[in-house]
């Protein structure tokens, strides 16, 4: 349900949309504000099929003011969301999270001037959390990281690159050298 004070600030078509749309699930887990939420690609799991026969799932990463990254799984026909792991590697707020295209690497950006790269084995998450695969240190808060595969301006050849923004800089990192 939408709070009344938001309706007063909405305009045009958005106002009607806000008053009629309701969320399908509410998931609680962080102790402070959530700054970022990103979904991975869809995995066709090697995991056991659920009762309905569905085996595909999506991983959801959230970054928060509580300095943690939380990893969730959404699966089954009803797409119920389950908390898998609480990842702790930042000394300050986690400002954003980003998935690589293949879903094997998660980047978390922090107010502690770091990007933490997590190695994710989607089929083993029931047994073990992702491990820290690398850490990129910046001079200022890191607000965003984007994975890019292929040719990138400012980078030589074809390779996997992580683009980060920190302070007044955009930085390009060759993942072959970092991971």
From TrEMBL:
Annotated keywords: Repeat, WD repeat
Record carries keyword Hydrolase: no
Residues in the signal sequence: none
Annotated PROSITE patterns: WD_REPEATS_2 (PS50082), WD_REPEATS_REGION (PS50294)
WD repeats by residue range: 87-121
Keyword Repeat among record annotations: yes
Gene3D superfamilies per record: YVTN repeat-like/Quinoprotein amine dehydrogenase
PANTHER family, alphabetized: TRANSDUCIN BETA-LIKE 3
Protein name per its UniProtKB record: WD40 repeat domain-containing protein
Source organism: Chloropicon primus
Lineage start: Eukaryota, Viridiplantae, Chlorophyta, Chloropicophyceae, Chloropicales
């Amino acid at each position: 349900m939408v709070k009344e004070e938001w309706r007063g600030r909405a305009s045009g078509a958005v106002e009607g949309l806000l008053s009629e749309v309701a969320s399908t699930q509410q998931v609680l887990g962080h102790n402070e504000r959530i700054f970022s939420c990103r979904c991975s690609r869809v995995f066709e799991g090697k995991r056991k099929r659920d009762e309905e026969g569905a085996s595909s799932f999506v991983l959801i990463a959230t970054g928060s003011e509580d300095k943690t990254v939380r990893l969730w799984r959404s699966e089954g026909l009803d797409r119920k969301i389950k908390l898998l792991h609480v990842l702790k590697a930042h000394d300050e707020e986690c400002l954003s999270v980003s998935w690589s295209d293949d879903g094997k690497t998660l980047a978390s950006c922090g107010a502690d001037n770091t990007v933490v790269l997590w190695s994710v084995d989607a089929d083993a998450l029931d047994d073990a959390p992702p491990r820290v695969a690398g850490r990129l240190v910046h001079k200022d808060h890191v607000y965003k990281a984007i994975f890019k595969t292929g040719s990138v301006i400012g980078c030589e050849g074809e390779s996997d690159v992580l683009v980060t923004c920190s302070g007044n800089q955009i930085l390009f990192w060759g993942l072959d050298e970092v991971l």
